[in-house]
């Protein structure tokens, strides 16, 4: 089932269940996707965003909430941190399983071999290939230094 359909079905179910917190998060997800659709239409793409871009949106939303939860904890606002974590749980339902550290390292090695990368100049090609294959499955902020270490 397409990701957008799963999100829409979950939104409808949350309405039926009267799950206010879940419904709020699902509406935020839908709004973010629609914003990207509108931006895509402005550039001439009438189909809207693709599944990979939706995964990127969800990944970004989850990361933002993790950072917010951390900031709330540091500020002593545990109630707000808990709410952010609840939103993360809803968002992660639609993300594919995250790769483990070992799986990420293996994916980096495979991408380096596939691209034929030999120096730091090839880092962009490797990251581009990884983003194409593993969007939503790995944290590219953590993968970047791994690629850099392998290529230097």
| Tally of structural domains | 2
How big is the Rg? 18 Å
For CATH, the homologous superfamily of the largest domain is named as Uncharacterised protein YqeY/AIM41, N-terminal domain
Give start-end ranges of low-pLDDT stretches. none
CATH architecture of the largest domain: Orthogonal Bundle
Sequence of secondary-structure elements: HHHHHHH
DSSP strand count: 0
The percent range for helix content is over 70%
State the CATH topology of the largest domain.
Hypothetical Protein Yqey, Chain: A, domain1
Overall average residue pLDDT: 87
Number of contiguous helices: 7
Distance between the termini: 42 Å
Fraction in beta strands: under 5%
Backbone shape: globular
**CATH class type of the largest domain:** Mainly Alpha
Structural class of the secondary structure composition?
mainly alpha
Major sheet size, sense and barrel closure:
none
Structure description:
By secondary structure, the protein is mainly alpha-helical. Helix content is 76%, strand content 0%. It contains seven helices and no strands. The radius of gyration is 18 Å and the shape is globular. The model has no long low-confidence stretch (mean pLDDT 87).
Q: Descriptors for this entry?
A:
Hypothetical Protein Yqey, Chain: A, domain1; mainly alpha; 152 residues; 0% strand; Arc Repressor Mutant, subunit A; single chain
């Amino acid at each position: 089932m397409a990701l957008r359909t799963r999100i829409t079905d979950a939104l409808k179910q949350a309405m039926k269940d009267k799950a206010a917190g879940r419904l709020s998060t699902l509406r935020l997800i839908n709004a973010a996707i629609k914003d990207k659709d509108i931006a895509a239409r402005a550039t001439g793409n009438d189909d809207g965003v693709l599944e990979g871009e939706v995964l990127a949106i969800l990944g970004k939303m989850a990361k933002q909430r993790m950072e917010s939860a951390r900031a709330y904890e540091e500020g002593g606002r545990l109630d707000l941190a808990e709410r952010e974590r609840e939103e993360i749980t809803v968002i992660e339902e639609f993300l594919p399983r995250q790769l483990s550290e070992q799986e990420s390292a293996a994916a980096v090695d495979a991408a380096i071999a596939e691209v034929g990368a030999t120096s730091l100049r090839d880092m962009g090609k490797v990251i581009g290939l990884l983003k194409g294959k593993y969007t939503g499955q790995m944290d590219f902020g953590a993968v970047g230094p791994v690629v850099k270490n392998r290529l230097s």
